[in-house]
Design goal:
There is one protein chain. This protein is globular. It has a 3-stranded antiparallel sheet with strand order 1-3-2, with helices on one face. A hairpin with a 4-residue loop joins strand 2 and strand 3. With 67 residues, the chain is an alpha+beta fold. The protein has one domain: Alpha-Beta Plaits. It contains 2 helices and 3 strands, in the order βαββα. It starts with a strand and ends in a 5-residue tail after the last helix.
């Protein structure tokens, strides 16, 4: 298991926060994803045998936000 925290840019509301969380939770291997709107951060716990930080960043970017 690995844990990583990313700065996420472009979030302005609770909908944005949920969208980023949902995008991360849909990545195979993600165990937990928590997004803090005020800090502009996403904390992710994941199985490093199933995914990696590059895939997590791509999921956030594909959802329309900056990492």
């Amino acid at each position: 298991m690995e844990t990583v925290t990313f700065k996420v840019g472009g979030m302005t509301c609770g909908h944005c926060q949920r969208r980023v969380e949902d995008a991360l939770k849909n990545v195979n291997g993600v165990i937990k994803a928590a997004v803090d709107l005020e800090k502009g951060e996403a904390a992710i716990e994941y199985d490093d045998f199933k995914t990696n930080s590059a895939a997590l960043k791509k999921a956030v970017e594909d959802a329309g936000y900056e990492v």
